[in-house]
Amino acid sequence: MKLLVMEAKLHLRDWPTLLFTIGLPVGLLIVLGVSIPSFTEVQDGGQRIVDTHAPSTMALLSLLTLSCSVLPAVLATYRQQGVLRRMSTTPVHPARLLGVQLLINLAVGTVSTVILILAGWLVFGSAPPKAWAWFILVFLLGTAALLAIGLVIAALAPSAKSAPGIGSVVMFPLMFLGGMWVPREIMPAPLLAISDFSVAGPFTQALKDTWAGQPPQLMHLAVVAAGLVVFGGLAVRTFRWE
């Protein structure tokens, strides 16, 4: 608990990063919804873009920022400065620091998503996710899978300065495959097939389905769960404390 409190204080001191992680998705949702008329027009399925597609992709943006930028940078910095090596000589195993980082990033991602839901409801009248139980399951599973990718980046980054760069190389393709710029509904078949196995694509689609009140497709849940197992196992095998 002391370690959790200490790391939380360090995260709060880095308020520009915290504000960017939480504020960027909310700001984009509001700006795009207000400035682009099609975002608030009812589509063929009876839903508006601000009801399901926009909030789900903005949630993906927030979580990818945490997993591909914030988490790798912190852990790579701790390794480079010898923090992890020093901790390994104490009764507090470095694995506890790793667990604390995961909890803090999960908390930040949860706060960002809750604010995103409230902003959509207050500004555009968008309903919160209708299938709440499924939404929570998808959110936790997808967040864990994305953070596992972040741990792999942290494990492979040779220095603290290189971690954000490597994270960006991973982050932007995942944003694209998740439907950030080209909705999955209009992707060509080959690109959609790649998106279906990218973790980000199934995660975003599952969020959209639960937002609309539908259960997620089992295939999407399976891909996200497989991503958690694969990248989590890879992170465990490749992570270095020093």
UniProtKB/TrEMBL annotation:
- Domain of life, per UniProt, equals Bacteria
Record's Pfam families? ABC2_membrane
Where does the protein principally reside? membrane
- Give the transmembrane region(s): 12-36, 56-76, 97-125, 131-156, 163-182, 218-236
A Gene Ontology biological process term: response to antibiotic
Keyword Transport carried by entry: yes
Spell out the protein name for this chain.
Answer: Transport permease protein
